[in-house]
Structure formats: structure tokens, C-alpha cells
Amino acid sequence: MFEQNYKDAMDKITPDADERDRILDKIILKEELKSRKNPAIPWRIAFACVAALAIILGVVFVPRDSFKTTSNNAPKTLQVSKSYNEIYKLIKPQDDTSLWDYIIGDTGVKKKKVIKSHVLFAQDDEAEFIIEEAVEDDEGNAETNTSGTAAPGDTSSENTNANANENESDDFSTTTEQVEGVREADIVKTDGKYIYYLIDNELRIFKADGEKSLLVSKTELKADVDEVYGDMFLKDDRLILLQPDDYTNDCNFISVYIYDISDPAKPKEIATSKQEGVYNSSRMVGDYIYLVSNSDINISEIDKDDPTTFVPVTETNGVCEAVPADSIYRYNQDEYTNQYTVIGAFNYKDGEMSDTASLLGGTENIYCSQGNIILADTTYNDNDNVEGSYSQSNTTVSRLEIKGGQIEYKATGEVEGTLENQFYIDEHNGYFRFVTTVTMVTQTEKSFDNSDEVYYIVESFGDNTSARLTVLDQNLKKTGEIKDLAKGERVYSVRFMGDIAYFVTFRQTDPLFSADLSDPKNPKILGELKIPGFSEYMYPYGDGLLLGFGRDADESTGITRDIKLSMFNITDPANVTEDDKTVIGGYAYSPALSDHKSMLVSPDKNLIGFAATDNYNSVKYLIYTYTGNGFDRVATLEIEDGYNYYAMTDVRGLFINNSFYVVSKNAFQVYDINTFLQVNSVEF
After folding, report:
1. How far, in Å, are 31, 239, 376 from residue 26 at the CA level?
2. Tens-place pLDDT, residues 287-340
3. CB atoms within 10 A of CB 201
């Protein structure tokens, strides 16, 4: 019966090139909308869709030699490029090969082939897939540095401002960051005297003086795009702004603006540099900003005699250069890609680019310690068209050593599964640790009486996911791992704390695992705590405590509900307990669920703050404290902007001495930190 239904379906379907192109456009458009968080390139998108079919439909037909990507048994390796010509030959497609062939795969023998799939996207970013077969006829028509974990909300100075005086505060909150000594960019920064806010295409500087606070300057920036989202760093009397810039000649750029803010009333731009690509992330270590971008190459317009058409470009104070060939690393497998990861190092004082490097292939997540940058990117696998089980996806990881503004590629490795964000990666005592979600699929061979083709059935079962912890050495070679944890669940949050790792998985309940990583060759699980709901992020909260921020969930169905705060007692990592929790009824969404920098966590001040949307679509800023008797909400602050669900990503809360400030696009509100009564509201 199955064979007959299959035959009938095949007989009805005819090639449709227009439909194929329409589907491709939809895939690319959907991914462009998500590119700020997770930029991707077209061939990765197509393979991701094919891989996801196994989960959603359970069975996918893949013909021999189609949809072929990196083999599960062939980890990628990188080598330095010898010349621009070598890079050109790798990027430029053959004259008789279309871009679609690269995206879908070599169609091989001109017989019946699966060459397209319909993709239907739902509004909640989940994808549904319907696969169709199309017939193509015989004519072919159709090194090592130990890092620590930063204590969120540490009130140590964000910077040493040359404008400092005896009235400047040293008691103020800073951006919530992952690694001690590694700064992360954000839209709000403070030096304890002034608050700097980057919104759209404007820099606003406020004097933070409690009820006497005022706006001292507004500076319109030079970016050539209508709506700009940027980040910034603050050090001494320098403000470093990172912004998307002009889109010319099919190229995106990130601009690095250096402002002298010794006079906050008159910030002065003193230098500008540019790096090609879409902004991915950045870090600041010492005097240098390390900027990571993903740069696409338009392969239809590249010129062999002009490397700037197929190699990323950088610009420092008006001097434009292509990234040197010997600073570009490519895969030994010579696999096709039209995207680069570009890493530039810029001095914070004058914006000079001290070094740059580029890797062929995109990057989704980055981790940075004081001595290394780890680039992580998902690859989707087949099994070389043989029967067996394998991981649906692997993560390629590359290590670049950073020191004094110099960047040196060191190694590439691979871990099975996928990483959600930077917190799933860590460096400690010369080893790199990863927690991934692994999805296993099983491939079996199948032939049909009405076809001379051999097809492979790729099956994905309900309990096919699990958590995995992998330890790699400085050469990114595996030293130890823990496999097959939490069958049927995926990893939601991770926090590494020295020799101990804590990670949360979820399907219906929230297992919080603790693992001992003191022996990199023999990591082991210490304990497991199961509770309803899950944590999206976990933050150290003083000695022996770990704060979880996430959602509550129904224990029987797994349906997520309101925002949840949990306080875990980790005094004994082998016996973790949930000492207290609070479910915030009526609040189901917060930007802090997906962006750790929008969360205020200060154990020293005993403050937990975040913006959230209530059931009436009204945005509030909620502030909690924690005592031995549980969580207490000490303030529910109105955001005067009348913000909607999405715009509240621009909201930040911070404290300086005895004042608490809430900064948003249309309001600057000041509260007494003891009573949380409003004492000032600055208009602009």
C-alpha cells in the first residue's frame, strides 16, 4: 500500500522551477529576519530545513548522492590560505553549476531525484515542513589561559574615567557578563557619574545625580541606515560604539566609532574604523576590542583580479584593505561556502586595527576568555549514504589565541550536537568544556519496485534527543565526555563554575544536573534535581547559591507558563536543592529570557531586576531581593514609554549609590533605592 501511494504521488508531481525559487526566497527571507541573533548562509539554511524534517515528520526520503554535507566521520580542519587565487578557486562555482545546485546538492545521475521541499514558517519561529518529490528528467531540466566566571552585578569599576573626581561613585552596577576580565558590549554603560545610552541612531549622555539628574548631550551618529541597533564599550575617557553601517556594493559593514567623552556635554568623535560583515558579537580584553562579524560574498559578481570582491574588507581611518590572504583560513576539505567569519582587533584609544583574521564559513556563537576566542558553528550531517545511526548535527569549534591585540588561529575541532549560546562553552585550566543537545537519527536503505533509485529513510524518534558534556584540550581534541543524559530532552541553560558545571534540560520537568570536571579525562555527574519548569539562565548569587531565571511549566504536559525565579543551594554540588522559588503570575515574557545583558543581578546589593510584559501587554520593571525566607518583590516600576512586547529590549535598570535608574527609549526615570519612590523623570 505504501509503495502504491508513493508511486501515485511521484506520478502526479512535475518540475516547477518557479516554485523552487519561491521556496528558496522564503527560506532566505526568514533567516534574514533572524540574522541579528543567529546569522546563517543559504546552504546552511537548506540543510537545516532538511535535518528538521526528521524531527517534525519522523521520516525523510533522501536519494543516493543528494543533500550531501560533511560526513559524521570527517571532522573539519583548517589551513592558512597561500594566495588570493587559491581562495578564488574555492569560492567561484564552476560555469555549469548553479547556486541552487550548491544549496541542494549534486543531483548526480539524471534520474528521479528529490530536489525540493516546501517550508512553511509559523509566527512563533517554529517551522513546519512538507516534503514533496520532484522529477528531474534525463536532460536535467528542472593556547592556554585560565579563565574565571564573573560574578554578575559585581560593583567593581566599569572603567577608570579620566573625568573622575572626588564626587564620582565607585558603587554602581555594571553589564552582566560571562567571564571575569572580559567585557561585553551593551546599549547602556555607566562610570558612576554619567549614564551613556545608545538607541537607534543617537547617543544620549545623562548626568546621574539622583533627583538632580539631567540630560547633558544628544549626539546623532553618522550611520547611513534608517534604524540602527548598536552596542558600546566604556573605558577611561573613551566610548567605543559598534554600529551597522552603510550597505554598499552588496556588502554590510560594522563601524567602530571612538568618542572622546572627557567633556560629556560635547562628546567628540576622534576615529572611525570599519569591518565588513553583519555584526555577530564582540568582547573587550585589556585595551583591545575584538569584533566578530559574518560576511557574505556575492559569488555572481566576484572578480579574480579584485580580491575585495571575494575577500572581506577592513577600513581604518579611511584606509581600505582586503584581509591578507595569509590571514584567511580555509577548510582542507575545500567545501563550498560563500560566507566568512571576520575577527578584527581594535585599540580602544584610537580605533587602530592591530590585527585581523578570517575563516571561511559562518559563526553562530562565540566564547571569549582573557586568552582565547572560541568560534562555534552548527553543521548538519549525513552518513555517507550508508545505514546506521548518527548525530543529526555537530558543532565545529575553532580556537583563536588573542594577546595584546594580536589574533592567531590555533586549532579546529568538533563536538556532537548543538549549542544554544555562549554560556554552553567554557575554558578552565587549559581545557574547553561544552554542553550540547544531541539529536540522533537512524538511516536505513530502501528501494521500490517502480524505481531504479536507492533511497534512504532517515528516522527520528520521540526520545532521540539527549544532553552531552564534552571536554576538549587546547588542540580541541576530545579528552572526556558524558553522553546520553536526559533522554528526550534538550539543554536550556548552562553555568560553569570552576571544576563544577550545572546545566538544565527540559521537556516536562526541569532536571538540574551537576557535574564534576576536575578530571578532564573522566568527567562525571554528581547529582540531578527534578523540578517543574526550567531556567533559561543561571547566575552565581553569593556563596553556595545559584539563581535560576526561566519559566514555570505544567508537570504533566510540559506547557510553559509564567516567569519563574529559583534559588538553588549548591553548597554540596552532589546534593543540589531548590531552596526557594517564585512564579510571577501574570508575567509570561521578559527580554532577559534571551539576553543576559538585560538582566540586573547584584548579590552584593541583593537586587534582581528585569523588564517584563504583563497580561495587559504593559511593560513593567520588576525588582526582587532574596532572603532566607524567599524572594520579595520590592518594586513594580511603570515604564513611561507605553512600550509594546518587542520594544522593551531597549530597557535597562541600573543603580548608582542610593539611586536606581530605569533607562528606555522615551524615558529616563530615577528612584530612591531604599523606597523605590520616583524622585525624577528626565524629558528629552
Report:
1. 9, 39, 26
2. 999 999 999 888 888 889 999 888 999 988 778 889 999 999 987 655 557 789
3. 18
Give the cell for residue 157: 569599576
CA nearest to 637, candidates 616, 604, 662: 662
Residues paired with 524 in a beta bridge? 516
Measure the CA angle with vertex 617, ends 612 and 621; round to 5°: 25
Predicted model pTM: 0.80
Question: Which SS3 state, helix, strand or coil, does residue 159 take?
Answer: coil
Q: What's the CA gap between 100 and 435, in Å, rounded?
A: 34
User: What are the pLDDT digits (tens) for 654-669?
Assistant: 999 999 999 998 899 9
* Cβ–Cβ under 8 Å, residues 117 and 103: no
Task: Please report where in the chains the cell 534608517 appears, as a residue.
Answer: 226
Residue 640's SS3 state is coil
Q: How far is CA 55 from CA 30, 59, 98, 115, 463, in A?
A: 20, 8, 29, 19, 10
Task: Transcribe 161-202 into DSSP letters.
Answer: -TT--TT--S-B-----SBTT-B--BSEEE-SSEEEEEETTE
| 117: nearest Cα among 44, 25, 53 | 53
Whether the per-residue pLDDT at 614 is higher than 90: the answer is no
Packing angle, helices 17-33 and 42-56, rounded to 10: 100
Query: Quick check: helix, strand or coil at residue 312?
Result: coil
C-alpha angle 432/36/501, rounded to 5°? 25
Report helix, strand or coil for 307: helix
**Grid cell at residue 100:** 541552487
Q: CA-CA distances (angstroms) from residue 664 to 36, 76, 96, 199? A: 20, 44, 54, 9
Q: Give phi and psi for 574, each to the nearest 5.
A: -80, -10
Q: Is 369 helix (H, G, I), strand (E, B) or coil?
A: coil
CA–centroid distance for 107 within its chain: 33
Query: What residue type is 637 in one-letter code?
Result: L
Sheet holding 577-584, edge to edge: 534-540, 545-553, 560-569, 577-584
211 exposure class (CB count in 10 Å sphere: 0-12, 13-18, 19+):
exposed
**Which one, of 522, 513, 470, lies nearest residue 493 by Cα?**
513
Contact predicate 395/436, CB 8 Å: yes
| Tally of CA atoms within 13 A in the half-sphere of 604 that contains its CB | 12
Q: Three-state SS for 649?
A: helix
Neighbour-count burial for 421-450, b at 16+ CB within 10 Å, e otherwise: bbbbbbbbeebbbbbbbbbbbbbeeeebee
Count Cβ atoms within 10 A of the Cβ of residue 280 and give its class: 0-12 exposed, 13-18 middle, 19 or more buried.
buried
